[in-house]
């Protein structure tokens, strides 16, 4: 299964796959961020692979390393009983990834959560608002440089 | 029932304060604001085993307009703080507040950007209940403490507060 996915992807998108790694049987592809929508569409629609379920989509802050943020996609092929992880790296200056909502509608709220917590923007998202924090909040709480107890005065309390 | 036969045609002298606070303290109507696991213990306090009715406060009303005791049972986030304050503002005077459990009293284990580190930052609290979550006996103890406090309160002590104008919130639009 692993070779099949890799060969198919490499044939279809020669420049998209930057890195392949496997850890304890979990296959991970590092994908170029410009190709992520096409790669997901191909993985979903290919009759042999049919990765038809997006389980999770989240962000990672890699702190001081090059390309600070990472968006992680977890896919399942129900037909083949196989899990696959895709990763996309973005730089802090150009913090934008194409939205996956056109392929998997589930991605809508997952991407809103990732935007809320890390400030990664999703291009062509139908409704990119904050998920948990108040709309007027100016920071991104899961970034590594955000203090644990928050920034004093950034969230308003009712007057006593 | 028995009082008339015991006193017959005689009368009792007392003060308004004594009668009013006696009536008030033995009939507290709690507003159960259960916002996390403390609520389970609060429900347990109302069940036959612990029986909050022994202290005259079994009438849990889920509308703040009929209550005089706010039990904040659970973790209060910054987003929820506005709701807690609104419920407090809707309760008629006189009113008392129990901060139940570590989270409501001090943020508890949630030492985090999203959780208010103690609800006394935005509502006046009368009794804090320790525990995570507190046992039902502990909540009953808090109600006994509130009763003592209510018993000592004179009618003249109560603040003559003007009606609060609640802000009109257009929450659906923002």
Question: Topology of this structure?
Answer:
The complex is a heterodimer of chains A (160) and B (174).
Chain A: H1 2-12, E1 17-23, E2 26-31, H2 36-45, E3 53-61, E4 69-77, E5 82-90, E6 96-98, H3 107-118, E7 121-123
Parallel strand pairs in A: 2-5, 6-7
Antiparallel strand pairs in A: 1-2, 3-4, 4-5
Chain B: H1 3-7, H2 16-25, E1 30-34, H3 38-46, E2 69-73, H4 78-90, E3 96-100, H5 101-106, E4 127-129, H6 136-152
Parallel strand pairs in B: 1-2, 2-3, 3-4
Helix pairs in contact in B: 2-6, 3-6
Core attributes:
heterodimer, A: 160 residues, alpha/beta, Beta Polymerase, domain 2, five-stranded mixed β-sheet, two-stranded parallel ribbon, elongated, B: 174 residues, four-stranded parallel β-sheet, 34% helix
Concise overview:
The complex is a heterodimer of chains A (about 160) and B (about 170). By secondary structure, chain A is an alpha/beta fold.
Protein model, in words:
The complex is a heterodimer of chains A (160) and B (174). With 160 residues, chain A is an alpha/beta fold. Chain A has one domain (2-123): Beta Polymerase, domain 2. Chain A contains three helices and seven strands. The longest helix of chain A is centred in the C-terminal third of the chain and has 12 residues, at 107-118. Chain A is elongated and about 65 Å long. Chain B is α/β, with parallel strands linked by helices and 174 residues long. Chain B contains six helices and four strands, in the order H-H-E-H-E-H-E-H-E-H. In chain B, strands 1-2-3-4 form a four-stranded parallel sheet. Chains A and B meet through loops of A and helix 4 of B.
